[in-house]
Amino acid sequence: PNVGKSTLFNRLTQSKDALVADMPGVTRDRVYGDMELSAHKRVLLVDTGGLTAQVEGVETLMREQAWQAIQEADWVMFLVSARDGLTAEDQRISKEMRKAGRKVILVINKIDGVSSEWIETEFQTLGWADILQISSSHGLGLGQLKEDLLVKCPAISEEIPEENQTLDGPGEDRIAVAIIGRPNVGKSTLINRMLGEERVVVFDMPGTTRDSIFIPFERRGIAFTLIDTAGVRRRGRVDAGLEKFSVIKTLSAIRAASAVVLVIDAQEGLVDQDLHLLGFAIETGRSIVIAVNKWDGLEPDQKEIIKQQLDRKLNFVRNVKILNISALHGTGVGLVFDAVVKAHKSGLVDASPSKLSAWLEEAVAAHNPPAVHGRRIKLRYAHIGGRNPLQIVIHGNQTQALPTAYKTYLSNFFQDRLKLVGTPVQLIFKTGDNPFAGKKNKLTKRQVAKKKRLMKHVRS
Q1: Which residues neighbour 210 within 8 Å (Cβ) at sequence distance 6 or greater?
Q2: Residue 289 pLDDT
């Protein structure tokens, strides 16, 4: 732990995908990213949690995730710290690597300010042939590291397969699904159940997931990118530092997704923080599915109370699919995929400008916009402005004066007419320019003469 693996990962992938903080144990799950070695060669890089000798708690699960990545890899970069020197942990990990028969490059990190000859001599006792010295935070030695990898990694093909173009994030042809919710509601358990493997760390402790993990996945011919996110607590309870960055990454994941699954703990019911997360997803225009987890642990009377609570508190969300599931036992998890696909398709809906304009005319005829300074607001025509998030552009005059309630009415009207499932409509209003704005009205000779006659009567 804390030897600079995530910093090196971000440097080599030229991204900020891995969360970095000056404390051990920040990375817990496997984080995948693309590293470009040359114009025709890219490799898949995997950042892992630190390997420790601890055999209990969340560290055991982190260790399992790291060893899963080691078993999958063609090469292993074994990072050690020049500042710490050779430790008993380094010797233990080195023995385990050798026993597993892995091909290893020993990378000595944090060499700035340390005697390079002395430190390499110390680490040569581990017995690895390939030893490189770098400083991941300052970029020292990374060129040599890439050259070394370029020689070691065989060229599988000159062209990168289209489906592997974006290994560190969702591609355009994938349905990116962000699994969001409060801490400890079962998001990671749901991800593992959907994948059918222990892909992310699950532990009975709030805040186990710290980073946003992008996982490419295919089911029944449909390509998904599942995004496991950190739980978001109330703002007043968020600790400064690491947790704050985790929350920022979660909110960024919502923006990166085309659909969002909000996981609610059935045993705690719908709380204000769930509604805040739901509001943010609606505000960003994401398609929404609500999964009420741990449903199988409720008594019949409790289930009825939760249903009534959901009906009462979710009346501002229209046509959203609410699923009762058990991520632990797999009940209802298959239905999540179907609901996500339907919600995603709603965000891609198409309608001609003539049809949208006709619906706009119908909405205005049913409820006219209010008058502003005695002048009626006119809404003339509408057209699609974007998809995922779904945007409808409405042209008219004085649209900036439309009250929020009327905008909500129009949004709901279009949502009903387009038969959208769990997809909010973002309205963009455009006010036409006044062609006479800033122009002085020039009077004719006849008008000037009439004005003079009238002014005489005023003076008299």
Answers
A1: 19, 26, 27, 28, 230, 242, 246
A2: 93
Question: What is the spatial order of strands in the sheet that 378-386 belongs to?
Answer: 378-386, 391-397, 426-431
Tokens in use for 219?
């089911």
String of DSSP letters for 20-48: --SSTT---S-EEEEEEEETTEEEEEEE-
What is the per-residue pLDDT for 365? 92
Q: Which two tokens stand for residue 268?
A: 């705690």
pLDDT of residue 199 exceeding 70, the answer is: yes
Furthest-apart CA atoms within the chain: distance in Å: 113
Q: What's the predicted TM-score (pTM) here?
A: 0.70
Q: Which of 96, 42, 48 is nearest to 72 (CA)?
A: 48
- Opening angle at CA 79, ends 129 and 226, nearest 5: 125
Is 240's pLDDT higher than 80? no
pLDDT in tens, 371-405: 888 788 889 999 999 888 899 999 988 888 899 99
DSSP string for 334-362: HHHHHHHHHHHHHTT----HHHHHHHHHH
* CA pseudo-torsion sign 378, 383, 386, 387: positive
Distance CA 362, CA 135 (A): 65
42 forms beta bridges with 36
Nearest alpha carbon to residue 252 among 280, 275, 279: 280
Residue 108, φ and ψ in degrees, nearest 5: -90, 110
